[in-house]
Amino acid sequence: MLSSETIWILVVGGVVLILLGVFLIYMKTYVLREQKSKLEDLVAKRTVELEAANAQLETLVRNDPLTGVTNRRGFDEKVEEEWRRASRYGAFVSILMIDVDYFKNYNDNLGHQAGDRALKMIANALAKLFKRAGEVVARYGGEEFVILMPGVTPGETIEAAERARLQIEDLKLSHPSSDASAVVTVSIGYSIEFPGEMNSATALISAADKALYKAKLNGRNRVEGDRALNR
Predict the structure, then answer these.
(1) Distance spanning both ends of the chain, measured CA to CA
(2) CA 161 → CA 58, 97, 171, distances in Å?
(3) What is the spatial distance between Cα 218 and Cα 182, in angstroms, rounded to a whole number?
(4) Dihedral, CA atoms, 171, 176, 182, 187, nearest 10 degrees?
(5) The pLDDT of residue 60 is above 70
(6) Residue 105: CB atoms within 10 Å
(7) What would the pLDDT profile of 181-217 be if each residue is shown by its tens digit?
(8) What is the pLDDT of residue 146?
């Protein structure tokens, strides 16, 4: 028969073993929790970094690297989006097509670096003018810019086009080889339309381009409109 002292030692030893086991389980759980927490923090950090990288990539894909405004791809996506929106709500969509007058002469006489600086200043001036919700300023190619204006009236479109023309002229960038003015100027063609089954955003852009061609034929540094779509 075990003595009371032996029993006591066995009880104490058992309790110690149990406590030790509990402690080891606790430590293992604690370590696992810490590892899980660190892993979650790492995943969250990497997710934020990935989202930031994706956002930067989206910006690079849709923005013109020289001027910082939207590029043609970004504009094409936005104009289709606004065209669908205007179709749902019965609103006008307007396009301004803008071309820098005699820009080849400008580059040939003052150099391409001066030309790049001029394009940046023009883009910045346009971006300050057109910043209402839905409006987009884009470099369409070379020295050509395009403005998307959803939800404005024909009268507002014409006024906006004239403001844009004057804003560029007011930059007072010397242009000694221009036949239109002593400073850099732009020709602007506009088009306006209600979206419908018989027309499209592509046709709207084409109409603005035709109006731009008319402005250039008529002496440049002017605004012309193609209203064929609105008859």
Answers:
(1) 115
(2) 29, 9, 16
(3) 18
(4) -70
(5) no
(6) 14
(7) 999 999 999 999 988 765 889 999 999 999 999 999 9
(8) 98
Of 189, 191, 186, residue with least CA distance to 212:
189
Structure-block tokens of residue 171: 């930059």
Dihedral, 102, 191, 66, 72 alpha carbons, nearest 10 = -130
Residue-wise pLDDT for 63-107, tens only, equals 999 999 999 999 999 999 999 999 888 899 999 999 999 999 999
* Residue reference for tokens 């293992």: 28
Question: Strand, coil or helix: what is 192?
Answer: strand
Please give the average per-residue pLDDT across 119-133, as a whole number: 96
Q: How far is CA 99 from CA 4, 64, 128, 216, 222, in A?
A: 105, 16, 18, 9, 11
What is the spatial distance between Cα 174 and Cα 75, in angstroms, rounded to a whole number? 30
Distance CA 205, CA 193 (A): 10
* Angstrom distance (rounded) from CA 14 to CA 106: 95
Percent of the chain having pLDDT more than 90? 64
> pTM for this structure?
0.75
Q: Which tokens belong to 125?
A: 């001036």
Query: Is 81 an active-site residue?
Result: no
Catalytic residue among 143, 144, 169, 193: 143
